[in-house]
Amino acid sequence: MLNRYTTKLNLFLFTLLFILYLCFGAYVFSFVEQPTEQMVINEMAKTRKDFLGKYPCVQEDDFESFIVTLLDANKHGVDARTNFTTVDNWSFAQSFFFAVTVVTTIGYGHVSPLSDTGRIICIIYAIIGVPMTLLLLTIIVRKLLILLNSTYIWFRVRFSSDTRSESKIRFVHLSIILIFSLIFLFIIPSIVFTYLEENWSFIDAFYFCFISLTTIGLGDIVAGDSPTQRNRLFYKICLTVYLLVGVTIMMLVVAMISLIPELRLIQFFLSEQEV
Amino acid sequence: MLNRYTTKLNLFLFTLLFILYLCFGAYVFSFVEQPTEQMVINEMAKTRKDFLGKYPCVQEDDFESFIVTLLDANKHGVDARTNFTTVDNWSFAQSFFFAVTVVTTIGYGHVSPLSDTGRIICIIYAIIGVPMTLLLLTIIVRKLLILLNSTYIWFRVRFSSDTRSESKIRFVHLSIILIFSLIFLFIIPSIVFTYLEENWSFIDAFYFCFISLTTIGLGDIVAGDSPTQRNRLFYKICLTVYLLVGVTIMMLVVAMISLIPELRLIQFFLSEQEV
Ligand SMILES: [K+]
Ligand SMILES: [K+]
């Protein structure tokens, strides 16, 4: 067991590492994204200039105020293209999907409440829904942990020998679970999404799965939102099941890793009195 | 302790309640948001029609393709208004803020990586950053729990008497912490944001604080993103500190509530063998 000063130093160093990691991230993202952004800006500026050049009759003020309305509508999830009336962001299927992304804290935000009433309802809905979901998933994770522990015991009985240490067997058991999770939660769904969504590459699909199941939910790309999507209700329900199962398994994997004695990193930061 | 069948029934009923809650949410959101959405759609359609009516010289095809480019650029965080070149989404300050929202799983997504390289880097960054943040915050929460427990013991010694039960004292202690959290994490920051952000009502600011600290992060409104924002770097750093402290306190409150014996709801779902 470490003494109080060592643990304090460790925590200080870890916090420092965390801040450095954030700065490093800021630098890398800035470096990688700035050129791409500049390209999009240039293209937009050119398109704008070309349009006004082709139509000198259009007054710049009118054009500007049209753009403002259009961007405002878009922020509210309304697309200004001619077919925009066909997309209904608050149909039952879409609202159901929205409710799921709120209670799981994924929160894509590609559609979000527009009115003050909607926002207040959203807050109240989350106050009840988020703890409820957390409790439900925690219970299921607890039950799955018991199940996995029994497979681990079977595994240990089956493969144990003098040459294999217990921690080695635990490592193999965990690796199998990780590989299974990777295949069934990320690889196979990514292939399915690549197939189902028009214009999605495998990287797009994998990125969507990863950003969703870590509950980051950037919402820059969301499955089932193509305006031409058929069977949207069915698609969104399948997606909901995928998200709920996926988030649960991710919680399970985190719980498993945090329970491994060899990986209990927290011990380096808590002194004897604090454990 | 409950027997196995009772716990199974409880879990089944709870799952059913969860599904009903999602359907209820879907119904309410659909009911509240559809009229507002229809209003935005109508307004957009009118603006579009008015513009084309005023300028009959503009060909619909050109107009359409202009809108598509504009919406595409907007999806990538590029605003098509004349002043759009002044906003730099991937400056160091903005990238730093992006990194923080990724590792805390808030993930507003109001800016998101545009290129495949950026997306792959984002995935790798999150694989390391999210567990690192989780570990750091868990350590801090553990230390704060010890601190709060000592205030609780002081509290109990100070106010304990034959007429007050232990659970009553614990309830008062928790209530004080909840009220303090509410004031310092939600009310005061909301007032500050209402003051600092143009066009934000108190409800907008409170909604932003709540959606952020629950890590839902819809990203429909984000502080410090007004194009005319002065001292953006300083603002974003303060915001980062607020988010990190806020998320930590929220984790602390959840941990405290889940540790209260009277509120250990999980016991209704785990049988004797499973505890
Ligand atoms: K989000
Ligand atoms: K999120």
Characterization of the model:
2 copies of one chain form a homodimer. The first copy, chain A, is an all-alpha fold and 275 residues long. Chain A has a domain at 89-275: Helix Hairpins. Chain A has helices at 4-54, 60-75, 92-103, 116-159, 166-196, 202-213, 232-259. In chain A, helix 4 crosses helix 7 (232-259) and helix 5 packs across helix 6 (202-213). Chain A is globular and about 85 Å long. The model of chain A has no long low-confidence stretch (mean pLDDT 85). Chains A and B meet through helix 1, helix 2, helix 3, helix 4 and helix 6 of A and helix 1, helix 2, helix 3, helix 4 and helix 6 of B. The structure holds potassium ion (K) (2 copies). One potassium ion sits between chains A (105-107, 215-217) and B (105-107, 215-217).
